[in-house]
Write a sequence for this structure.
């Protein structure tokens, strides 16, 4: 399903031109218009899913397989020394385009990418509670 008001549906399906690095029947990989680093790319499903909560299992596995292929290509061609794979869900988590997408952010010595957060401490009580609540 496509969403007529969604810019990433239009880009993924070729209705709006983009710098495409890879395309198959399920996804399109494009360069991010405001890159965090050289080669910053986005994997867009051609179907509309707002986020990880909605995406099909089949699409989720295709996206990660595509990420793996692109990661190798980036390493070979750009000489990047690391890669951050990032996927935001919800406004609070930094999502700005509400069509599922995965960021591939190649990393270089001295780049300006910042993915740091303050580490907390996992207390015994919270560990117990979380294991109880989140065990699948
Ligand atoms: P989010 O913050 O939702 O995880 O990421 C959205 C990403 O999409 C941002 O990194 C932003 O630069 C990128 N973006 C937004 N609009 C466009 C566009 O029209 N074309 C491309 N190539 N990237 C876009
Ligand atoms: Zn969409």
């Amino acid at each position: 399903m496509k969403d007529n008001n969604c810019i990433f549906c239009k880009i993924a399906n070729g209705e709006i031109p983009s710098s495409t690095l890879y395309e198959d029947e399920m996804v399109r990989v494009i360069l991010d218009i405001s890159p965090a680093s050289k080669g910053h790319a986005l994997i867009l499903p051609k179907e509309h899913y707002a986020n990880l909560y909605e995406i099909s299992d089949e699409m989720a596995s295709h996206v990660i397989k595509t990420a793996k292929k692109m990661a190798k290509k980036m390493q070979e061609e750009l000489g990047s020394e690391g890669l951050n794979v990032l996927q935001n869900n919800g406004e609070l988590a930094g999502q700005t385009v509400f069509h599922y997408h995965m960021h591939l952010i190649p990393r270089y010595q001295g780049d300006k990418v910042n993915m740091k957060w303050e580490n907390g401490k996992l207390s015994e009580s919270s560990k117990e509670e979380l294991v109880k609540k989140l065990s699948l």
Remarks:
- The mean pLDDT is 97.
- Residues 49 and 56 are 8 Å apart (CA to CA).
- DSSP finds three helices and five strands in the chain.
